[in-house]
TrEMBL record:
This is Nitrite/Sulfite reductase ferredoxin-like domain-containing protein. SUPFAM superfamilies: Nitrite and sulphite reductase 4Fe-4S domain-like, Nitrite/Sulfite reductase N-terminal domain-like. The keyword tRNA-binding does not apply. InterPro entries: NIR_SIR_4Fe-4S, NiRdtase/SiRdtase_haem-b_fer, Nit/Sulf_reduc_fer-like_dom_sf, NO2/SO3_Rdtase_4Fe4S_sf. Residues 16-71 form the Nitrite/Sulfite reductase ferredoxin-like domain. Keywords: 4Fe-4S, Heme, Iron, Iron-sulfur, Metal-binding, Oxidoreductase. One of its GO terms (molecular function) is 4 iron, 4 sulfur cluster binding. It holds the Pfam family NIR_SIR_ferr. It comes from Ascidiaceihabitans donghaensis.
C-alpha cells in the first residue's frame, strides 16, 4: 500500500479537513491557552455539531472531529471569541508558545507582539510556523517550527532559523522585528518547491547576522504530573472526550487551559487524579499509543480502536503502538514500533512502520494480537 497523500496545508477553523469520521476543525489557541469557560463552550460545540471528540495536536492546537455543520461551528467559535477575523490571519498565526511560563511570562509577551505584526510578514508556506520559547531553558526544542525565539546560552534572547545551530542575539524590543526580517529573508531567497526553513538552509547559507549566538540547553521534557500551582494532564491517544473535559474543568475550578506539544495540557486549578480519561503520571502506558476514533465514530472502521488500545496497553513493554481503524492512518503520520490496522472486524499487524505498510500478519482477533505483542522481541 502507498502512503496516503500528505497535504501541503494545515486544517484550520475556516478551512476544515475531511477525515474518515467527518470534518476536522482546528482551533489555534491564542498565546497557547484558552480560558476555561471558552473551553467549556468549545466542548459544547463538539457535542452538538461534532462527534464529541477533541484532538490535542502535536503543535498544541485543539481540533474538533466529526463535524457535520461547519457554519454552525464557525458561528459558535466567533461567539466564543476563538475565531480569527480572516482565514489569512488564522493561517499566519501559526505560533506555538512555551507551555510553562516563567515569572515574567516572556514568551507570552513576545507572542502577543508577534501577533500584532502578522500583517508585516511576507507570504509564507502554509505549514511555516514560529516557536516562542523564551522562558528559560528551552521547552519546545522538539516542536516543529521554522523561526524560533529562544533563550540564548548567556540568558538573553535569540531569533534562530530552524536548522541552524546559531541565532541572532536581540533585545526584547528588537525580537519581533528580527523574526519578521528572518521571515522576509526566507521569502526572498527560497526556491518555491521548498516550504520549510531547515531544508532551505541545506542549500542556502544563512547570512552571518542571523547566526552568531548559541541557544540555551533544553529543559527536561514536560510529563503529566504536578507543577508549581498547576497540574499537567496527559491525553491518551491524543484524543479528549468533550464530556470528560467539561467535568475536569468544573472539578478543578481551573481558570485557563494551556496547551503543550506531545499531547499534554496544563490546568491552573486543583489536581484531579481520579479520571481515567486523562493520564496523571508519566508511566501511564497509554501515552505511547496513537489511536484514531475507530468504530462506531468513523464509517471507514470495522473495529473499535480506543477500547482495543486500553486492552493492548499492558502488553506493550515500552513499545509505541499505533492502532488504526483502517489503513488510512489518520491518527499519526510517523512510524511506530507496532501498528494494528483494522480490517473486516479483525487486525493486521505491522512492525516498525505505518498503517498503510505491508502487514506481517493478517486477520488477528484482539486476544491473538495481545498474545503476539507478548511474543515480539
Ligand atoms: S484511520 Fe481511523 S479515523 Fe481515519 S478513516 Fe480510518 S478508521 Fe476513520
Amino acid at each position: 500500500m502507498s502512503d496516503p497523500q500528505v497535504k501541503g496545508w494545515c486544517p484550520g477553523a475556516y478551512r476544515p479537513m475531511m477525515s474518515g469520521d467527518g470534518l476536522i476543525v482546528r482551533v489555534r489557541p491564542r498565546l497557547g491557552s484558552i480560558p476555561a469557560d471558552k473551553v467549556q463552550g468549545l466542548c459544547d460545540l463538539s457535542l452538538t455539531h461534532g462527534n464529541g471528540i477533541l484532538d490535542l495536536t502535536n503543535r498544541a492546537n485543539l481540533q474538533m472531529r466529526g463535524v457535520r455543520d461547519h457554519q454552525a461551528v464557525l458561528d459558535g467559535l466567533w461567539d466564543l471569541g476563538l475565531l480569527d477575523p480572516t482565514p489569512e490571519l488564522e493561517q499566519r498565526r501559526n505560533i506555538i508558545v512555551a507551555p510553562v511560563c516563567g515569572p515574567h511570562h516572556v514568551s507570552i509577551a513576545i507572542a502577543d507582539r508577534l501577533i500584532t505584526k502578522l500583517n508585516a510578514l511576507p507570504d509564507l508556506p502554509a505549514k511555516f510556523g514560529f516557536v516562542v520559547d523564551a522562558d528559560g531553558p528551552r521547552q519546545l526544542s522538539a516542536a516543529s517550527g521554522d523561526i524560533r525565539i529562544e533563550t540564548s546560552v548567556s540568558g538573553g534572547l535569540i531569533v534562530r532559523a530552524d536548522g541552524s545551530d546559531l541565532g541572532q542575539a536581540v533585545t526584547e524590543s528588537e525580537v519581533v522585528n528580527a523574526a519578521v526580517a528572518l521571515a522576509r529573508w526566507f521569502n526572498e531567497t527560497v526556491n518555491p518547491d521548498i516550504r520549510r526553513m531547515a531544508p532551505h538552509l541545506e542549500t542556502t547559507p544563512l547570512p552571518h547576522c542571523f547566526a552568531r549566538e548559541t541557544f540555551a540547553p533544553s529543559a527536561p521534557a514536560l510529563t503529566p504530573g504536578p507543577l508549581t500551582n498547576a497540574f499537567a494532564y496527559g491525553v491518551p491517544f491524543g484524543s479528549i472526550d468533550a464530556l470528560a473535559l467539561k467535568t475536569l474543568l468544573t472539578r478543578s475550578k481551573a481558570g485557563h487551559m494551556r496547551f503543550a506539544p506531545n499531547r499534554i495540557f496544563i490546568l491552573d486549578g486543583a489536581a484531579i487524579t481520579d479520571m481515567q480519561a486523562f493520564a496523571t503520571s508519566a508511566d501511564d502506558p497509554r501515552l505511547n499509543i496513537h489511536a484514531c476514533p475507530g468504530a462506531p465514530a468513523c464509517a471507514s472502521a470495522s473495529v473499535t480502536t480506543r477500547d482495543a488500545a486500553d486492552i493492548l496497553a499492558p502488553h506493550l513493554k515500552g513499545r509505541s503502538l499505533h492502532i488504526s481503524g483502517c489503513a488510512k492512518g489518520c491518527a499519526h503520520r510517523a512510524s511506530t514500533d507496532v501498528v494494528a490496522v483494522g480490517r473486516d472486524g479483525a487486525f493486521d499487524l505491522v512492525r516498525n512502520g505505518h498503517p498503510w505498510d505491508e502487514p506481517l500478519q493478517r486477520g488477528l482477533a484482539l486476544d491473538r494480537l495481545a498474545d503476539e505483542l507478548e511474543l515480539l522481541t
